[in-house]
Amino acid sequence: MLNVEERFMIKDLYDRGWSVSDIARESGHDRKTVRKVLSEPLLHAPKPRQARACKLDPYVECLQRRLSEGVWNAHKLYTEVKARGYTGSETRVRAWVQPLRAARQVQATVRFETEPGQQGHAAWNAGWIGGTLA
CA-CA distance, 2 to 13, in Å (whole number)? Predict the structure, then answer.
């Protein structure tokens, strides 16, 4: 099997105008091998991976039911599926729950502005009397 450098060299020589026979003599490979290299892409596309089964897959239906009931605590969900026989980690449960959580809504604060001299603030401390600590 030819490595990428050899394939690149063969294609480069062919692009420079060398014949298939000359490339075969120069590279030390058969002419059929040179023709095959020239007919194929320089790099082969990676084969798609098959999806692997996750330890959590048998418990997804149970987890979805609990989420619909309003339980969003990943630790609580982990303890429940562990009691049913789940052997994976709590991290995997947390990673599964995280994208399903709705983004938390930040409570907006309305500022209350007054004109100068309209309102005053004072801090009272019952421990201070006349500038000394009672």
Answer: 15
Written in H, E and C, the secondary structure of 37-78 is HHHCCCCCCCCCCCCCCCCCHHHHHHHHHHHHCCCCCHHHHH
- Identify the three-state secondary structure at position 128: strand
Question: Does the model's pTM come out above 0.70?
Answer: no
Which residues are CB-neighbours of 105 under 8 A, at least 6 positions away? Answer: none
- Average pLDDT by stretches of 10, the chain with 134 residues: 88 94 93 93 84 90 92 94 94 93 76 82 65 56
Q: What are phi and psi of 132, to 5 degrees?
A: -120, 155
Task: Quote the tokens at residue 25.
Answer: 């003599």
